[in-house]
Amino acid sequence: DLPTIFAITPTYYRPVQKAELTRLSHVVMLVPNVHWIIVEDADHTSSLVTNLLQRAGLVERSTQLSAKTPTQFKLQGKDPNWSKPRGVEQRNAALRWIRENTSKDDRGVVYFMDDDNAYSVELFEEMNKIQAERVGVWPVGLVGGLMVEKPILNNENIVTGFNAAWRPERPFPLDMAGFAISLDLLHKRPEAVFSFEVERGYQESEILRHVTVLKELQPLANLCKEVLVWHTRTEKPKLTEEEKLRKAGKSSFD
Ligand code: UDP
Ligand code: MN
Fold this sequence. Notes:
Largest sheet: 7 strands, mixed
Low-confidence stretches: none
Order of helices and strands: EHEHEHEEHEEEEEEHHEHEH
Oligomer: single chain
Bound molecules: uridine-5'-diphosphate, manganese (II) ion
Strand content: 15-25%
Distance between the termini: 47 Å
Mean pLDDT: 97
Radius of gyration: 18 Å
């Protein structure tokens, strides 16, 4: 039987939010063993997310949480997007929920599913293969300045490193979308969480260093030859006309 895949999605209010979450909901709908944990970067959960989950028929296999990023860590208008860590508070809230609501004997997998990436249904079939006490890894498209950032295997199919070009000295130079963790490891290592205090690009290494070592990584997606997830990013829409309507009090959107 299949593990429950706990897919953790940090998300925040902005014009494209509903479009992003709608796209993600359709993948979740196609993979019955996913439990989707949506964590809003806000003081309260929103009716936008509640309604979306209802319309997708996902109420029974989802959890809606909120966890606001502390003000000193929140990106401000003109900050470049990489200047502060994103999703830290939200992912940690979801990890707390998972640790409180599952037991170490449950078969499960935990995946960090950001709201703007593009996911293949096949990726989740790969996650089903993750063994007890292991972390599955696979290639990610369009990230780190490369077409594909991926684990490197030796002739015994053991992971010996990564092809990363950006900060390759990181202990685990891979993207958040490129791994999933067996649930038992999170119960065994309660100290495995994300942190605001780490350097840019080190969030993945921060959690992984607590739960695994390089040679224990389980290569998936046809021995890391297939790309089943892409680190796409959504352009911020130009809403200049909407802005004019708003100033004239004629927009129905706040
Ligand atoms: N995010 C958030 N609050 C923010 C910025 C981002 O909850 O203030 C979420 C976002 O919705 C996404 C994740 O954190 O699911 C990673 O953010 P983003 O995709 O902007 O980061 P990048 O992929 O550029 O590293
Ligand atoms: Mn992103």
